[in-house]
Amino acid sequence: MEVRGIFSTLRTTLTGMSAQMKRMNIISENIANAEKMPDENGNIYKRKVVVQNSVNAGPSGSFGDQMRLRLRRSNGAHFGNSSKDYSFSGKPNTDTIEVKEINDIKTVFDPGHPLADIDGFVKMPNVNMIEEMVDMVAASRNYEANVSVMTAAKNMAKKAMEI
């Protein structure tokens, strides 16, 4: 009996949970630094985002190519004589999670502020609290969805062991 599918499901959900936790940590950092003033060197906090890059997405990163790859892995006869080779190396799909800084600032008109320039503008981090909160809710829901998938996979494994 091969149970590789359940373990790959657990591995995938753990990867998703890890990515969403990283995303929530970065969003929390953005929220904490939303009103941060420039430091003594004039450096301004830059908004950060989490980018997930697929390392093993197949010959091309398009959705259709990924689906063909998955079908080819399950049964080679699904596509008959396809000109593309969708061979599978046997390695699990690993995603890299990168944190990227967005080089964008906002200027606020406040001529009385001690850090205001000659024109009366103060440079601030370009962090939109509403956008960050929406991203936080989305990351939280994605995390919950991964937990649900993990629970379902665990329950299926238990039921399979009872048979």
Overview of this protein structure:
By secondary structure, the protein is of the alpha+beta class. The protein has a domain at 4-46 and 104-162. The protein has three helices and four strands. The protein has helices spanning 4-32, 63-74, 129-162, and strands at residues 48-54, 95-101, 105-109, 121-125. A two-stranded antiparallel sheet has the order 1-2. A two-stranded antiparallel sheet has the order 3-4. The radius of gyration is 23 Å and the shape is elongated. The model is unreliable at 78-94 (pLDDT under 50).
In brief:
With 163 residues, the chain is α+β, with helices and mostly antiparallel strands. The protein contains three helices and four strands; from the N terminus they run αβαβββα. The chain is elongated and about 75 Å long.
- Outline, from the CA principal axes? elongated
Q: In terms of per-residue confidence, which ranges show pLDDT below 50 for 5 or more consecutive residues?
A: 78-94
Query: What is the string of SSEs from the N terminus onward?
Result: HEHEEEH
Oligomeric state of the chains in view: single chain
Strand order of the largest sheet: 1-2
Average per-residue pLDDT, rounded, comes to: 77
Distance between the termini: 12 Å
Radius of gyration: 23 Å
Strand fraction: 5-15%
What's the story with the biggest beta sheet?
2 strands, antiparallel
Based on secondary structure, the structural category is: alpha+beta
Helix share, percent: 40-55%
Q: What is the helix tally? A: 3
Number of strands: 4
